[in-house]
Amino acid sequence: MTTTRDVTIVGGGIIGLATAYALSVTKAGGPGNTRITLLEKESRWGRHQSGRNSGVIHSGLYYAPGSSKARFARAGAEEMYEFCRNHGVPARRTGKVVVATEERELPALDELARRGWANGVRVEELDATGLREHEPAVRGIRALHVPDAGITDYGAVCAKLAELSQAAGVELRTGTELVGSRVSGGELVLSTTSGRIRTRRAINCAGLHSDRVARLAGGNPPVRILPFRGEYYENLAPNAPEVRTLVYPVPDPAFPFLGVHLTRMLDGSLHIGPNAVPALAREGYRHRDCSLAQLREFAGYSGARALARRYWRVGAAELTRSLSTSLFARAARKLVPGTRAADLRPAPAGVRAQALGPDGTLVDDFLVTSDAHWIHVLNAPSPAATASLVIGREIAARLAHHTEAG
Ligand SMILES: Cc1cc2nc3c(=O)[nH]c(=O)nc-3n(C[C@H](O)[C@H](O)[C@H](O)COP(=O)(O)OP(=O)(O)OC[C@H]3O[C@@H](n4cnc5c(N)ncnc54)[C@H](O)[C@@H]3O)c2cc1C
Questions:
Q1: pLDDT digits over 64-116, tens only?
Q2: Fewer CB atoms near the end CB (10 Å): N or C, the chain?
Q3: Segments forming the whole domain that contains residue 104
Q4: Within this chain, do residues 206 and 256 fall inside the same structural domain, yes or no?
Q5: Three-state DSSP class for 210?
Q6: In Å, how far are 114, 138, 208, 391 from 61, measured between CA atoms?
Q7: Ligand 1 shell residues, CB under 6 Å
Q8: In testing the pocket of ligand 1, which one of 10, 37, 53 has its CB within 8 Å of the most ligand atoms?
Q9: How far is CA 32 from CA 1, 23, 29, 126, 400, in A?
Q10: Does residue 241 share a domain with residue 181?
């Protein structure tokens, strides 16, 4: 059976759903009766990155001024709080601290403060005493306090976006994987595991599979997706160190990851993580998940070889820590001395979709490309969940622009 649509979105994570919401509910692509379908290969929404993350609403502190990440995170955070408030999704503006524990981290902490101010983020500098007033269990020599950071449940945000989009007329299809795409009579013909769809335009929001979907669409994406597993522990001690909000280390500026942090979740539990371990499969949530096809693909990609040559020491250290609860606890103890390995239990891991260039560069900013029929979201790492409502609107605007131009 063939269905005919105007726009088909591939991927029911928070970016695909926010795009459907922007097109249907807020009509960011312009008024009109656009017929929209959203395809998701899993049986429910947000099963991958969007439902397996730290749940933090980032405030825009970290990102290079002028970058899409900086612009979208700040606006996106406020919209996310408002969306949650309006639609009964739990969210809390808890604030967070970024903590330097050693002198050598101070230049990077100062640079973060500068970035924050340049990005219009409220940032307060704390000395060791000020830090203790905010977070009595945390030790550091200096810190930044960011009052507008917070926490939500992005899985619940996904479910609400799906509900609102469906009510506004979007056809939602779970359990439907895109497996092929060709152009016929000026339109796309998409092959899926539940039939064919003729569509004028398509939007690739396939996260960990976005480079594959771009190739399947006949494109030659400028990047490949490298999966990085992020493992978490939960601190189960009844007398666990009292961490009130979100506690972050000073991140290594060479990497687009924020480092192992402590997160007081909405349900009150205390999570520690995520690390960043190269995964051996795109949905490799466990150590034993390994895809030979994926390994072959990366062995043949210049970017993966260059990255491995440059960072094998860091990769080996992350892998070692990933196999040892006591090394993980040691990382947390740097910030919260009372953390004991015996109290930590593994919590569900997530896998990040990180775009990798052919020269081994980890792409830092969001990356979206387009051609006559497709828009491809090829890099939407953190803070993309925070910024998802703004990103969805940008994609809708790009679609409208192309439609007018075409
Ligand atoms: C460990 C971790 C911690 C993070 N912490 C934060 C945080 O605290 N704050 C923050 O803002 N961001 C955070 N992020 C980042 C954030 O989760 C992601 O940026 C965001 O979820 C990306 O959403 P997405 O829709 O692009 O991808 P996904 O959620 O992965 O969705 C892509 C969807 O596409 C589907 N799909 C793939 N191929 C096909 C196909 N062929 N046909 C149909 N469907 C397909 C997949 O099944 C999937 O559901 C974190 C990420 C991780 C992994």
A1: 999 999 999 999 999 999 999 999 999 999 999 999 999 999 999 999 999 99
A2: N
A3: 96-147
A4: no
A5: helix
A6: 9, 20, 25, 18
A7: 10-16, 39-42, 46-50, 52-56, 58, 177-178, 205-209, 213, 230, 274, 350-352, 380-386
A8: 53
A9: 26, 10, 9, 52, 11
A10: no
